[in-house]
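pasting input
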Amino acid sequence: MIYPALEVEGLVNRFGRQVVHDGLSMQVRADEVFGIVGGSGAGKSVLLRTILGLQRPVAGVVRIAGADITRMTEAQLRHIKARYGVTFQQGALYSGLTVLENVQLPMLEHLELEPAALEELAMLRLRLVGLPADSAWKYPAELSGGMVKRAALARALALDPGLLFLDEPTSGLDPVSAAAFDELVLYLQKQLRLTIVMITHDLDTIFRTCNRVGVIVDGRMESDTLERIVEHPHPWIQAYFHGERSRARLGAAHGA
Amino acid sequence: MSVEVRRTGEDLELELTGEWVAERFAALETALASVDLAAAQQLSIGTRRLTALDLSGAWVLRRFVRRARAAGAAVRFLGTQPDQLRLLDETLKEEGPGAGGRSPAPAGPQPLAAIGRIAVSAGRDLYGALAFGGRVSATLVASLPQPRRLRPISIARHVYDTGITAMPIVALIAFLISVIIAYMSARQLANLGADIYVVDLVTIGVLRELGVLLTSIIVAGRSGSAFAAELGSMRLNEEVDALTATAVDPFEVLVVPRVLGLVIALPLLTIIADLVGLTGGALLCRYLLDMPLTQYATRVEEAIAPTTFWVGVIKAPVFALLIGLAGCYRGLEVRGSARELGRLTTVAVVQAIFMVILADALFAVLFMELDI
């Protein structure tokens, strides 16, 4: 592909006097896993909402596959939205629908399928993310935290998107489930040739899955490969990658 | 076109072209369905001119390949077999006969079992409601000695939310209803030459029944639903559990202030409804029946017994209790999903209105027996 999968240029977001983004730019290349990191309140969620077209920025350009979505009407956005998948932090599964129906909903809205194919294709997504078959008829309230994340991932994959956004995919999971989820994301990324943009705080996830990392500091983004970003002189980035909690991880990664 | 078919004797050659993606699912299915597999011994599938193949496209292709194999054809790929097919095979391989089966289908209609189930759930419901009422009373009694635990600020907030903000709509409805009654009865009574009794009808009707009943129904719709929705979403958000975990009794901070607030607000709203209702009657009598206001006032005084006003207002706290309890009980019953929240909010309002009307009927019998 000629275009970067996702490109943000000179993004400005303001709420009243509070400036969240002040000329933020980023580029995500096809087939890579790009991690977005930032302090609480740095504007990670606002950035994601802007990229998803849930809110319009004050200024700046967001291009998905080369098309600027900030200038699009809702009808034009509909096409773009069918091409990416999103998982939200809390899963955001529709609580009144079963897991299977959750996965089927985007298909029903965007594709023309007969009922049998609809069910089999949805089941395929569930198997792909490693959910047991009997979970298909459960309601989201009956699922464990890890299963909610997997079900949300299955729903995000419903339309075979090339681009996937994951908002804190491993938050709230125990380390073992989180590691399993990392492996799942990597497996799917390789098998389905996905471009993945993930917001995460989890250093283990970053080191395991991300090719490049963008750190939001002072309303802008510093992005680079994982190896180089850890050497960035900005104090917050230093504190993040070289704090008490990450030293052990870094040592392990460099030693390997 | 997404498939080109070439047939040479028993050899069938398919050339896949273009994009095999989810968006074109229906077109792909029809294209493959039209391929005639009969008498084909050898099926070759070319993928070199395929520009895109996603999971849904691969799934269609895989199903076709299985169909061809079942029909007895040997399948081979010209060039490499797409990775997506291998992924599908891997993902679906341990698909046993039982896996992916439907959940146990609901059994057909079994009237006896259904009746039993309804009876049991009705019994549980009644028990739950009684237990809830008991718990509220116990909490109230326990916090009476310590006024701080009655949460006066919280009560004031609920008096404001359920009472003060409801004043305009309550007043408007009371006005309209009294005008309707006066107008209707004026036309009927005029035939008998008994116009003056319009005043009796409006006064007694509004003071004894309609003022309090309509106010209660409005409040049940406004505040009963608000209680249920508010407590229900707090339940979904685990706020109720958070309160319990910090040793704060949710009944003390959530339920009792709401119920008490409503018990204070509803009688006050009823008085407003009574006042506005009488005013409406007066205006209609003045302008429609040309009755001087002084005559209306005298007639009102003659029509009402000393108890008429109180018979209406005394019912208000009881109705308020029923509305508040129904709203809070259903709200705290919410579990799991947004749909439950909607369902139980509806149940709260319907039951509150039903209980208010039922209680009103019981009051009517009681007052008749008491001869007031």
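fyi Confidence is low (pLDDT under 50) at residues 97-101 of chain B.
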